[in-house]
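Hey team,

Sharing the Type I restriction modification DNA specificity domain-containing protein run so nobody has to redo it. Sequence (676 residues) first:
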Amino acid sequence: MPRLDVQKKTLGQLCRFENGSAFRPEDWGSHGLPIIRIQNLNGSTDFNCFERSSEGHVVVNPGDLLFSWSGSRGTSFGPFRWNGAKGLLNQHIFKLHLTSGVDPSWLFQSLKHLTPTIEQDAHGASGLVHIKKSELEGYELLTPPLPEQRRIAEILDTLDRTIEGTQRVIEKLQASRQGLLHDLLKRGLDERGQLRDPEQNPQQFESTELGILPRDWNVTQLQNVAHKITDGDHHTPKRASSGVLLLSARNVLNGELALDDVDYVPEQEYQRMIRRCFPEPGDILISCSGTIGRVAAIPAGMRCCLVRSAALVKLNQTQLTTRFAEWALRSSGTQAQIRNTQLQAAQPNLFQGAIQQLIIPLPSVDEQARIAGLLDGFQNRVDTELSKLDKLQALKRGLMDDLLTGRVRVPLPAAEVEDSDAGHPLRPAAQIAVPEDFPVIPTMPALVPQPAMYRAAAGADTQAMSEWTRQLVEAVQGQRVATYTPDALDAVLPELMGLTSDRQGLLKVPDVLSKAGVRFMLLPHTSQSKTNGAAFYLDEPGRTQPVVGLSLRYPYLDVFWFNLLHELAHIRLGHAPVPEESLEEYDTSSPDEQAANGWAQDLLIPPDEWQAFFARHPASDPQLFHLARRVGRHISIVAGRYGHETKNWSRVNPPKLRPNVTAELKALSNKLTGEP
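Structure output:
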């Protein structure tokens, strides 16, 4: 039987809207609570503060829902989750006080979905719009019971985190690409594909008008390595609804041609236009009007002609290749030259003379190919992530349409359905008829990470390792943690390391890691997996939801802490997870594994302390205890390190040095799994 327990509720029934205060410039100061204005909703950290009492003003706390009722369409108008510090609300923004039985994350997602409709109805010009409180309160939302709200919010919030993580990956890749481009155009690549080093080999470099460059490079104007530099047709072309592409500056993006908004000319007009300017595959196009300096190559198989807002560069391919030219023209140095020509003109136009005089570095054609190949490979990684982002955003839009309109219902455990039927505060007065064949969204599959980072013994069965990881994924699904960032993990490390002095400290590990956004699970390893631990992400490749799992293979405190820190190192150091199909060749002595070992060792015992101690080897029991007290660690951590270094485990295995902590590990496992 489909559930019929949904009803329409107005926003006024779901929450109360409270407007912020009209702070005046004379109220502003540099101390006190920050005043939250519309600009701060979009990430601005420029705050004015209010130094007097907050009484009579709307106080905003982290996690509160806000609604900007006066702002720009698509940017500053609509709902926001406040993730900043405690502050006071400025005018033109509502704080939402939720009615009992309303999940804040569900309401936020519902308002995001509703906002385009509100914007259409809002008052104002095409850009800046506003809406009255009474009008906003009248909009309706299809409101399911609280358990279903939470499930919908969980699905959509998970997608949001994955999208945000993918966006961060793209931003990092793009920044790295710019840095790589700068280095390659300053240092080049030798025959082995390695960056030249001006400090180690200064004799290989010389000073040029573009700065210090490899000695065997040339520096030249673009006109000296081009057969022709011109712009498009100066007459208004005869356009058609189809035919040959007619490109303008708006179609020239950096590294690609945008053809979603393009004009056409008939064949006869095309033949006329190419008599003066004949674009061919391999030629370079530059936007020379409006946003000037964007560069893209004409791809193979494309027939096109140009209007005058786009410039054409026909290269002498024996001196300057297309791929290298595109990257060189997109570089910060060449773009600075283009900006300088713009500053000398009243309008943002780039003329042929300025393009001809652009100065570029000129390696050999072979080195150009090596440089362009490396940059193209990096760009492919960016494009892959951009494609993933497009798919995730499309999935999010589709799920919002399905879940927030009631077109698709999420399945709930029977107990939750019964509870909601029995006493939910939003019991409908009139039920909405739902047909028997109404579609129900399947339970979202666990985001099983095909790639992970493992710490396992030799001979581990890869299928068993993967199965153990899948069990970890299922086990952590209900955990609620903060948002992960490397800085958040760094912030909790002192507290985490403070737990290493006592054998009971491991019981607090999940709570500490949750503050950093890391899910933790202790799970018996499956037969033949021989796995000590694993680290992975629920949202790979977004990498914003890390998981660390440990097994119960060895009931010793030093093993627990070393394995935990080893897996955390993979997360903190940004190591790439190993795809499942590569586990057969997984090298436990790889640079990443060695780096994780070193990170864990150095956190447990500072290197200078250990080196000074081990230099006096062999060590007595009192000396081992003394070092443990000195560095604030349990004796088993020092004893375990000593046994590892000396390969003499019988020396450190007596219970007074390495006590068995099976009881503590079992208690931790029960705490995590909810078993008695």
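The chain is about 40% helix and 15% strand.

Ping me if you want the raw files.
A.
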